[in-house]
Amino acid sequence: MRLDNRFVFAAALLVVLSNQLVALEPIPEKLVVLTFDDSVRSHFTVVRPILQKYDFGATFFVTEGFDFPTNKQDYMTWEQIAQLHKDGFEIGNHTRDHMGVTAKDLPKLKEQLEGIAIRCEEHGIPRPTSFAFPGNAIDEGGLPILREHGIRFARRGGAPEYPYERGRGSAYEPGLDHPLLIPSAGDARPDWEMDDFTNAVAQAQRGRIAVLQFHGVPDNAHPWVHTQPDKFEAYMRYLALGGFRVIAMRDLEKYVDWDVTPQKYDGVIKDRQQAIANHTSRDNYRWANDRDKSRAWLENMAVYHRFSTSEICSATGLPAAKVEQLLTDFQLVDQPYPTHQADEPLTVLPYPGGRHPRLS
Ligand SMILES: [Zn+2]
Fold first, then answer.
1. CA dist., res. 317 & res. 45, Å (int)
2. What is the pTM of this model?
3. Distance 329 CA to ligand 1 centre (A)
């Protein structure tokens, strides 16, 4: 018991220190990251004006693979890519040759990343800090190489939790997903209908973030991942009318500490696979049924355990606006941590939501 308490206290200290260094904003509901792969020309001609109309952020993951150097009917020029950067969009790294991150090709990954980083510098674009896995191939051995190269966030596909074909996926769960293995909540396909899109973005709640993967709009060179322009326009209108916050991958830094990684890179992937196989939900939350209990639980989470709003949402199932209203009503906002004298008995409080304990 004594050992347990010491361990919990040490864990608490680490988290408090890391939070003090980076003042993160609570993850809002309806947070969507838009990403576009493969340097497709329609990113400039079709996607850019639509995103500008709605004032949406986005990341364009560029590569010189396929026949990028010679086919300017289907691929952007570097001048167009530079213009996307000047417009305020993020340019991300998708390797020079669209090389899959597989065990066999790991020795080439550094050079492949550098190939794009140098091109960016030549065109006045900052060295990318976001990455997308080409062909959605992932290998654990690539993670330290990406980190050494200065990559903070990296996006994969919806696999292995979901099969590639339908483009389904899971929302990003910061703290559980490795920041270099962020799943796509949806990976647009030519036969997608509005429901496929709305199901993907509906996952953006209770601290989860929907990261969407698109290719060309249209995509003549990669027809299996093509999106029709009128469908794309309807998707974006849905986000705008629905009050979604639409950002680039690098903007995740406001909400997520990219330096915090889970102990097992694939722990949450296995949990999801099991839940999908068993047809069960991974949601695990409940809320008190009266006012006194509500206040006590909120005080426990917000004051004693210093939960963020999104963590309270995950534990209670309440929307962020409701949590913030209750914290204000109960006068629990910005309360100092309760003092504790050395000779007082230890306070033992439950830790809602089943997260890793972090306070004594
Ligand atoms: Zn690609």
1. 41
2. 0.82
3. 49
